[in-house]
Design brief:
Layout: H1 6-32, H2 36-49, H3 51-56, H4 58-65, H5 70-82, H6 85-88, H7 90-104, H8 117-126, H9 132-144, H10 150-162, H11 169-182, H12 185-197, H13 204-216, H14 220-227, H15 235-247, H16 251-263, H17 270-282, H18 286-296, H19 305-318, H20 322-330, H21 337-349, H22 353-365, H23 372-380, H24 385-401, H25 408-420, H26 424-433, H27 440-452, H28 456-468, H29 475-488, H30 491-503, H31 510-522, H32 526-534, H33 541-553, H34 557-569, H35 576-589, H36 592-606, H37 612-624, H38 628-637
Helix pairs in contact: 1-2, 1-4, 4-7, 5-7, 7-8, 7-9, 8-9, 9-10, 9-11, 10-11, 11-12, 11-13, 13-14, 13-15, 14-15, 15-16, 15-17, 16-17, 17-18, 17-19, 19-20, 19-21, 20-21, 21-22, 21-23, 23-25, 25-26, 25-27, 26-27, 27-28, 27-29, 28-29, 29-30, 29-31, 30-31, 31-32, 31-33, 32-33, 33-34, 33-35, ...
């Protein structure tokens, strides 16, 4: 009978509402404080007893979505769709969109950042009323999902305006981030204009987004204007501008911005110094790097990991003193994989193979796991026979640990090291294990090794494999195969490769053109060789040398000399190889006086210092023509001992003078 008491029923309803409100508040409080496990526990207990009440509470569900539990989020989404809450509850819908935006950029989604986009798009389409918050949440999800969705995010902006949803500062920040990542300068400039049109105040967030966009698009003038558009600045803005100038190849302006930053009383942080030192490293600017290094002690940053990593990279590339590298590395409080990799690269640059592999062992003993870049750096630096033995050990370590399943970088480095030591069977065995990740670098290394061993026919088989596996071919790869065709003097194969270069759009590549000239000359097809040379728009010295070498090797000595004159007339500067070809041509054609003129012009007119090979060719030319007195006087004054063993003709008499 008590159950029929209306006053008791009302009291029970009120208590249920208070309890529902309290548990939802508890869930929200736990989630806001980062106690995600506690929030999930409370929610699941209530869900088990009152599923309808728990699923419909927008406060609790919105809080739970911040816990980034994907399984629970999909359950909440499913419950919301089943109960029609997506269309009627914009707060819950926007919370779901925010979850999908966070999921698209989370470390767990690194392998598939676009997985969160289809459910987010479906959710967005189901929303009956879309406001600025929902549009911004959807744009954020698309931006974070990566390059494939940036233009889709930008396309939502005009839809947003048509729907009468005014953009917010967060909207512009997200869209500008997409323009910066995709280097979409035109769209970024249009957004800047829209931002001014809407009268959105340029706070530090928007200034940073704008400046970052212009820096990434290479428009440093606009970036500089944005910096000074309002009095508000901070270290993030200045650091972005410094990094932008460094990336655009203007180290002096980057250093000038650093000085302006200090004059503006903005204190640089570790990221500022790391960006400046990295810029100095890229330009091999050792002295400015040393000066910045000295400043670190003033701010107590001499042990900062990111700064020290940049310094290790600087000294490994630019300093001839090994101690600079070692002292900087040992200053790092907690060396990470970047620190160790930079040290290994520096030791390899100094030719310290034994210390390089010792550093790799110490890295593993310290508990820092190498990544693929570490291993590939280590293998690329191997040069001595001892290093080859160590490389075999590294190969064993990779196989034992299934290191990154032998990714392309590590596999190509292993192939390259085996090729350098003429271990082609080992190189091919590694390439075979790379069945699904072989690329043009793999095949180019194999081609180079087979060419060096004189196995040109097998080299050309690599080209057929590349074609069947649909591997991209670049100019450098094709040049290797043309070299094989040239060595075989196979005109049919060479013409087929020439046709391939045209179809692949590589016929204008300089390395391909030079290889074609060499191939046609060795096949005695000088007409085709000249045609290839004439197709080069502005030939450099390498192309001129290729043409002159072709003419000399086919005994067109007079035409080779004419080509030299044409080369100097168009302003191309000859090098040592050019003069070797000219001296050989003059020697063989008996044009001794012209040869003497070329030899004397090397240093006087062109600034090319004669090397031992030039003196040998010059003396051989004088000896063959019987001009022994001039040859003897030349031997008395030359600073380099010529290779008299290879000097032919009557020059042998000079040995007794």
């Amino acid at each position: 009978m008590n159950s029929m008491n209306p006053y008791r029923s009302i009291d029970m309803c009120l208590r249920l509402r208070r309890s529902a409100s309290s548990w939802a508040a508890a869930v929200a409080d736990h989630a806001r404080s980062g106690r995600h496990d506690a929030a999930l526990t409370v929610f699941r207990r209530v869900l088990a007893v009152h599923p309808a009440t728990a699923a419909a509470d927008e406060l609790a569900c919105s809080a739970l979505l911040r816990c980034c539990d994907a399984r629970l989020a999909y359950q909440i989404h499913a419950q919301a769709c089943r109960r029609g809450l997506v269309a009627s509850n914009p707060v819950l819908a926007c919370s779901l969109l925010a979850f999908y935006a966070a999921a698209a950029s989370s470390p767990a989604a690194a392998s598939s950042p676009t997985a969160a986009i289809p459910p987010a798009c479906n959710l967005f389409d189901e929303m009956a009323h879309k406001d600025a918050v929902s549009y911004t949440a959807m744009i954020s999800a698309l931006v974070r999902a990566g390059a494939a969705h940036w233009r889709q995010a930008l396309a939502l902006y005009p839809c947003m305006l048509q729907a009468g949803a005014p953009p917010t500062q967060h909207t512009f920040a997200q869209l500008l981030s997409a323009c910066a990542s995709g280097r979409l300068h035109r769209q970024g400039t249009q957004l800047h204009a829209q931002l001014l049109r809407w009268g959105a105040g340029l706070n530090l967030v928007l200034k940073t987004a704008l400046l970052h966009m212009y820096c990434n698009c290479g428009n440093m003038g606009y970036a500089h204007t944005v910096l000074h558009s309002t009095p508000q600045t901070d270290v993030v803005l200045w650091t972005a501008l410094i990094t932008g100038y460094a990336r655009s190849g203007d180290l002096q302006s980057a250093l000038q911005m650093f000085r302006s930053m200090t004059r503006a009383a903005v204190l640089p942080n570790a990221f500022t110094y790391a960006a400046l030192i990295s810029a100095c490293s890229s330009f091999r600017a050792l002295q400015p790097g040393r000066q910045i290094h000295a400043r670190l002690f003033k701010f107590g940053l001499e042990h900062d990991t990111s700064v020290c990593n940049a310094l290790v990279d600087l000294y490994s590339k630019s300093s001839s003193r090994l101690l600079d590298l070692l002292h900087t590395f040992h200053a790092v409080d907690k060396p990470n994989v970047v620190s160790w990799t930079a040290l290994i690269a520096g030791l390899a640059c100094h030719g310290r193979d034994e210390e390089t592999f010792l550093a790799f062992s110490q890295m593993r003993l310290s508990g820092v796991l190498p990544n693929s870049f570490t291993v590939s750096t280590l293998l690329k630096g191997s040069s001595s026979s001892l290093a080859f033995l160590h490389a075999r050990k590294i190969h064993g370590y990779i196989l034992k640990t299934s290191f990154e399943s032998l990714d392309a970088a590590v596999g190509n480095s292993l192939v390259d090291v085996y090729v350098r030591f003429a271990r082609m069977d080992d190189a091919w065995a590694v390439a075979t294990t790379m069945a699904f990740i072989r690329d043009r670098f793999t095949y180019t290394s194999l081609a180079r090794g087979l060419n060096q061993m004189g196995l040109q026919q097998r080299t050309l088989e690599m080209f057929v494999r590349m074609f069947h596996e649909d591997v991209d071919i670049d100019g450098f790869s094709l040049a290797s195969f043309l070299s094989s065709a040239a060595s075989l003097a196979s005109i049919e194969t060479g013409k087929q490769l020439h046709s391939c270069s045209v179809k692949l759009g590589l016929s204008s590549d300089i390395s391909v053109s030079n290889s074609l000239i060499d191939m046609y000359s060795k096949c005695k097809c000088m007409g085709d060789a000249r045609n290839v040379f004439q197709s080069i728009g502005e030939p450099k010295v390498v192309s001129w040398n290729a043409l002159m070498s072709a003419l000399v090797s086919n005994e067109y000595y007079s035409e080779a000399l004419s080509a030299f004159e044409d080369m100097t007339l168009v302003g191309a500067k000859p090098d040592g190889i050019t003069f070797s070809l000219m001296l050989f041509a003059c020697n063989r054609s008996g044009l001794v006086d012209i040869g003497i003129k070329y030899f004397n012009s090397m240093g006087n007119l062109f600034g090319v210092l004669p090397q031992r090979s030039h003196y040998t060719l010059f003396l051989d030319m004088l000896g063959r023509s019987g001009r022994l007195t001039e040859a003897a006087s030349t031997i008395d004054v030359i600073p380099i001992q010529p290779d008299l063993v290879n000097v032919q003709g009557s020059i042998g008499i000079l040995k007794s003078l």
